[in-house]
Amino acid sequence: MLRCTKGDRFFPMDVEPYVRVCSLWVQRPGGQPVRVVPANKLTLETLPQQPLDGSGVVHFLRFTDPQNLPEGESWGVGALRERAIKGLRETREAFRAGRGRLARVGYVSRFVDALYSITLLARGRVPGEAAGSAAITYRRVMEESEGYAYHGRVTRQEGWTVLQYWLFYPFNDWRSGFFGANDHEADWEKVHVYLAETEGGELRPEWVAYASHNYSGDNLRRRWDDPEVEKVGEHPVVYVAAGSHASYYAPGEYLTELDLPLPRPLARFFRGARGFWRERLGQYARGDAGDATPFHIPFVDYARGDGLAIGEGGDRAWDPPKIISEPAPAWVSGYRGLWGLYARDPFEGEDAPAGPMYSRDKTVARVWYDPVGWAGLDKVPTPAEAATAALERRRELEARREELGAEIGEKAHKLRKLGAEAAAVRGRSHLDARGRETRRRIAELSGDLDRLRARLAADEAVAGSLSEYADRMEAGERDPARAHISRAHRPASATELRFSRVAEAWAAVSVSLMLVIFVAIAIFEQVHLISMLVVSITFFAFVEAGFRGRLVNLVGSVNIGLAAVASLVLLYEFFWQLVVAGVLVVSLYVLWDNVRELRR
């Protein structure tokens, strides 16, 4: 069951009427796009017949083609902009963004967000009028035959039966309608339900995974009995984000950050510096320790669930499912192009997606050939297999324990013989070289033995744990439902949403104000440039920390930073004096230690 957000204009539909009103285009490297099939001439049967194919060629559909408008409609820029503004006004009347997007992130993110907005004006290839045109065409299609459909596929992999629900939206108006990152034609989303066979041969749902932007892995899925998985009867509820159509388990506003990657050398340096600051110095650093970039652009997904509800007990019912059979039909396997406008966006955010089976580069998508691994389930046995898998692993460890024991015995015997040899050559000057070689081999062999014995001890402990785990699984116990989640994607809390108007106003003006002050200092305070910049940065940092509740963290970090700077300054100014003092301290310590030994 889908719960959409008020103001959203596009909902899951059957791909057949979408393809029928689209035109098919070809983009050759270095050339201009060419329309090869006009609107209203394309079908699912003819779609896979891709003309003018070749290396580097991109095929794409256009839903906002001028021919898509009904007769009598004008494609004039002014008229279309007027329709777009009218549609956008209707969306904004139904939707209120609220406050808090920029107030939830720091200065760097705000600054990069501003740069992103500026560059989007230069690189944006999907104009706001496209959303208006798409809404007009979509409304016309719905008037002819209103319907809400999903495309279903059943696949089996490694003991799991996977129900793939593919949801096709005709347009993504996240940027123009809901202050998001991008707009693009077409949007393929997905919800997966993973079934496992019981001992009685029944198939029962065990896990679900809702697609959300480009996330994958353990954090994406939830167990069927997890309280976060809301259900109507046996139907899982999906909260759909306005415009982006990302899927979430609970209603709310989700902060989503777009990462801007750094060049590899800079990324390695930043990761190392971040790890030192966090692990060695124990200081606060936002995000994961493995983050390779400090630049995150914040956007909000509004998945409030206060709009149209589709499915069991909702405002609209699903049409009969459109089954993607095996082998896949030609419109899935044969068409490797994009399902909407190819905007040639270098970040690909405004390019339409490929179909269920492919990525934009025409390679087969992992979610198609490995849906179990996509959700991180490839390492999770089904409940019926859990005890058996644990016992099999225990038997493997026991077999390896015998091998390790034999290897340890052999190497220990060899070590004793080398020890005898070392004792025999000790003090024989003509055998000094052989003695050094023997001692080197003894050190290597001792290290190997230490590692083998540690491995054997760990294997014995793991074997005991596996036995206990198998007993618990056979008794019907389960692991905690959320044990696999390391970083759950949660909606903003009530506290985060209750930012004061002052905090939000500060977030809106702080970056611009900071830049203006820096320019003013550079022009009028060149004599005291460094000191004035330090004072300004300190002021902005403390005000920001106060609004974000991190003043204590900032004070601690500043103290450590100042101590490090002061140490470097002292080292530079008094280097030779410090060297002399160090030598004197060491000599006095050696003297004290030797005298203490004489007195014993």
From TrEMBL:
Source organism superkingdom: Bacteria
Coiled-coil portions: 387-462
TM regions (residue ranges): 505-524, 530-547, 554-572, 578-595
Protein name as catalogued: Uncharacterized protein
Keywords (A to Z) from UniProt: Coiled coil, Membrane, Transmembrane, Transmembrane helix
